[in-house]
Amino acid sequence: MIVSILRSMRICGLCDCHFLDDLPCDICPRCWERLPLYDGPVCQVCQKPLPLALSLEHSAQPNHVHCSDCCMRMTFLDGCFYIGLYSGYLKDTIFQLKYKGFTHTGEVLGRILADAMPGEYELSNKTVVVPIPLHPRKLAERGYNQAQAIAAGLASALSVPLSADALASVRETADQKYLSAAARMRNVLHAFTVASELVVSGKDIILVDDVMTTGSTLNEAARTVKLAGARSAVAAVAASGLGYPCMCERWKDTGSRS
User: Fold this and answer.
1) Which of the four pLDDT bands, split at 50, 70 and 90, describes residue 173?
2) Other beta carbons less than 10 A from residue 197's beta carbon
3) In this structure, are residues 243 and 68 in contact, taking their beta carbons and an 8 Å threshold?
4) How far apart are alpha carbons 149 and 126 in whole angstroms?
5) Which of 43, 46, 189, 198 lies 20 to 30 angstroms, CA to CA, from 248?
């Protein structure tokens, strides 16, 4: 009896503990409880969490709320989904992936991310998963691309192709976390190129990264693949930072993206 139980136990992909349950998941119930999930107002353009929108005058109309980042730019993303907020346990997990070499954690996060994909995002035979690339110097320094590890897990869970080399980083950029929102947009402008238009032309691209803060990097990647003929570009990130709601009239009523 004990031997049978031990054989049926699994190892959590995040904390490495042994656990036993009937759910088809890669992490233990304790880790699920520790993930900082979010269920509240979001930017209607990039889907960034906007908890402060609850206190605004127009909070009764959440579809009219967009973030201050999207108000400043032309938007090329057709949406975004993520596991949870960039805080607590999820933030610590991404740190281990990014700086401690825990690449197996990236694949686990990718599979969890697949479960977080909203039902309105339909997959097709044109869907391709593409990780945000690292600049060659940074890739050589780190030894791996954390976004590619997440993308591999996501593509496997969704049973869609992974194109790890579809995008290339052609310009080394400053660290985004030290820049203002406006500076972030300038920093990543023309930072990417498409290796081959055949890879993205006519395709529905899922762009994968570890964290979305302002969304400037992902938006620039979306611009790049669309200029190469991509049919759509959706972002998928392990965690999202918080956004700040902007209540100007830019997106109100029409919901159009300009």
Assistant:
1) low
2) 14
3) yes
4) 21
5) 189
Give the amino acid at 60.
A
| Whole-number Å distance between alpha carbons of 123 and 13 | 26
What are the tokens at 3?
């031997």
Paired tokens of 153: 């897990």
Whether the predicted pLDDT of 180 surpasses 70: no
| pLDDT recorded at residue 11 | 83
- In the DSSP assignment, the letter for residue 169 is E
Please give the average per-residue pLDDT across 211-217, as a whole number. Answer: 92
Q: Go through 69-85 and write b for each residue having 16 or more CB atoms within 10 A of its CB, e for each that does not.
A: bbbebebbbbbbbbbbb
Quote the pLDDT of residue 2.
47
Alpha helix positions (H), 28-102: 29-34, 68-71, 88-99
Question: Maximum CA pair distance of the chain?
Answer: 65
Residue 115 main-chain phi, psi, to 5 deg: -70, -25
Name the pairing type of β-strands 204-212 and 232-240.
Answer: parallel
